[in-house]
Amino acid sequence: MELLKQNLRLEPEDEERVVYQQPPELFAQGFVLMEEIRRQGKLCDVTLKVDDQSFTAHRIVLASTIPYFNAMFTNDMVESKQKDITIQGIDAEALEALVNFSYSGRVSIDNNNVQSLMIGASFLQLHKVRDACASFLMGKLHPQNALGICNFADTLSCLSLVQAAEKFIQHHFAEVSVTAEYLNLPIQNVSDLTSSDQLHVASEETVFEAVLRWVKKDPAARTQHLPQLLSLVRLPLLTPQYLADRVATEELIKGSHKCRDLLDEARDYHLLPERRGLVQGFRTRLRSCHCMVGHIFAVGGLTKSGDSLSTVEAFDPITGRWDQAEPMSMLRSRVGVSVMRGKLYAIGGYNGTERLSTVEVFDPVQKIWNKVAPMHYKRSAVGAAALGDRLYVCGGYDGITSLSTVECYHPDRDVWKLVPEMNKHRSAGGVVAFEGHIYALGGHDGLSIFDSVERYSPHTGQWTSVTSMLTQRCRLGVATLNGKLYVCGGYDGSTFLETVEEYDPVKDKWSFIAPMNVMRSRVALVANAGKLWAIGGYDGVSNLSTVECYDPETNKWSFVSPMCAHEGGVGVGVVPMVSAALHQPWESVRTSL
Predict the structure, then answer these.
(1) For the residues 539-548, what does the mean pLDDT come to?
(2) How far apart are CA 445 and CA 427, in angstroms?
(3) What's the pLDDT at 593?
(4) Which ranges of 105-237 would DSSP assign to H, the alpha helix?
(5) How many CA atoms lie within 13 A of 134 on its CB side?
(6) How are beta strands 477-481 and 106-109 bridged, if at all?
(7) Do the Cβ atoms of 181 and 217 come closer than 8 Å?
(8) What's the confidence (pLDDT) of residue 275?
(9) Are 287 and 199 in contact (CB under 8 A)?
(10) Among 511, 539, 512, which Cα is nearest to 523's?
(11) Rounded to whole angstroms, how far apart are CA atoms 332 and 348?
(12) Are 284 and 234 in contact (CB under 8 A)?
């Protein structure tokens, strides 16, 4: 070596330096080699024991990759000198997977091991693995498991998963409140849920029914909690009819002085407006459920030449883009559309030759349309709305006359049942679920166009007239948002309309808001992401593909991306953005860290 140095003849005053750095893959290759050495049982200097299983490893590898072992081996703990170390509080399979992870940087997460892995990763302070498990569980949130996942995340202090689960529960409270997990909650959890401002509920009726359902699961032990829970239900926001027909007739309510006082408070709120200031503020405050976002599906409709379509397209309000979806099995214009249990129903309509009684349903997870039981009557220009776990269709046109008949669909039995008829024959009317009732608005009977409104109570089985709109309208759009009912556009017998009306059920009053930018008859109106969306229609000259969005905070309509495959006359429904993985088997995924 000395001879080599002399032969190089380097000048000592030459200060130039070159630093050689190993390529990154050298370290990865080193861990691969250490993993192979470990599998051969060579150079291992520690054995980890859990239950009746043992795993050998190298202290230096464990200390350099797992914070728990770094603290154990470098801080003169007694275990730092032990050959065999017993580990408590972690599953054996999880420990094996995480020790393997310390060598390979990979761990496979699936539905069978995600909980034990997340517990183990929290115990060993492997935060990235814990976060990967949390992300996996976020993708598996479902009404049947969301409460359990939320509680599990809370015990591990995983804030991101707790927040995701809480948000899911709030958005899907109606579905969650019928599950076994909900019915077995302790009183404090039920109280926290029912008091939340963030519950996404169609009306306060959902919360009232959820409270009664929980109490009746074990009335002997839980009836004592009813006054506390009922005080968290915003009874003044229920309609007078629901208060009289449902709340006041409930035996558990009648048997409690405190509950009757709360009922009287709600009644006074409606009967004595001057006393509304005496009601606790939170009980008259709407819950903030406007943040729910879904895909808007435009179904069927018409071409420019007036032909019926089977085409379906979907709008993503986040990306602002329309994309074509799977077409229906049949041509349908003037079709009734509604969403129930996350599925999209296309009901009746006109195929260019005849009015239809057929019904098909789109599963956004399987991405297929399936036919279900047909209605009793053929109907086009028909209104449809889902209320609870039932689907209602009202009126329409059978090719000869406008209809007053109403049908109710039971999805579990796949049957349609006739329910009491409307007071009026209504074709091209608006139909919507609002505050525990089915509302039918406007439309025509072949002779007159209506401004009248009536509503159906599933509890009493009766239709009653309510305050009329300010304008007579057929072919109108109707939707609900933030506790109010909206109608837009339509035709009044002489003019195609761009006007929009808002109904406040507390004031029992209709009022005009900002009009749309263009006249729209045969318009579809839906609420989504805290806004109203007016889609397609006919302006008196041509079918429309344009779409307008209404912001209630600014009272302004603005154009958004037009439909790409339709020219108006569509039926529209909003399908919540729930991951397809919620309804599929939990498939294994590999996460590399």
Answers:
(1) 93
(2) 6
(3) 46
(4) 114-123, 127-138, 146-155, 159-171, 173-176, 180-183, 187-194, 204-217, 219-222, 226-230
(5) 24
(6) unpaired
(7) no
(8) 62
(9) yes
(10) 539
(11) 7
(12) yes
The pLDDT of residue 52 is above 70: yes
CB contact at 8 A, 194 and 182: no
d(CA 431, CA 441) in angstroms, rounded, equals 6
How is residue 542 written in tokens?
């041509």
pLDDT digits (tens, 9 = 90+) for 444-479: 999 999 999 999 998 889 999 999 999 999 999 999
Q: Give pLDDT tens digits for 487-528.
A: 999 999 999 999 999 999 888 999 999 999 999 999 999 999
Question: On the CB side of 201, how many CA atoms lie within 13 Å of its CA?
Answer: 27
Whether the predicted pLDDT of 102 surpasses 90: no
Q: Given this model, what pLDDT does residue 288 score?
A: 61
| Assigned token pair, 284 | 């008259």
Distances, alpha carbon 564 to alpha carbons 275, 303, 316, 541, in Å? 52, 12, 13, 19
- Nearest-angstrom CA–CA distance, 401 and 410: 26
Q: Give ∠ CA 90-96-98 in degrees, rounded to 5.
A: 80
Task: Return the CA Rg of the chain.
Answer: 32
- For 390-418, the pLDDT digits (tens) are 999 999 999 999 999 999 999 989 999 99
pLDDT of residue 23: 66
Highest mean pLDDT (candidates 46-55, 64-73, 397-406):
397-406
Tell me which of 349 and 61 has the higher pLDDT. Answer: 349
Paired with 562 in beta bridges are none
- Give pairs for 162-170: CB < 8 Å, separation 24+: 164/134, 164/138, 165/138, 165/141, 167/198, 168/141, 169/193, 170/196, 170/198, 170/199, 170/200, 170/289
Task: Give, for 387, the enclosing helix (H) or strand (E).
Answer: strand 383-387
- In 3-state terms, what secondary structure has residue 419? strand
Closest CA to 210 of 224, 229, 236: 229
Amino acid at 520: R
Q: What pLDDT does residue 18 have? A: 65
pLDDT at residue 550 greater than cutoff 80: yes
Q: Rounded to whole angstroms, what are the CA distances from 168 to 88, 176, 294, 329, 576?
A: 34, 9, 13, 33, 11
Q: What are phi and psi of 152, to 5 degrees?
A: -60, -45
CATH numbers and ranges of domains, the chain: 31-140 (3.30.710.10), 175-284 (1.25.40.420), 294-577 (2.120.10.80)
Closest CA to 359 of 578, 584, 571, 569: 571
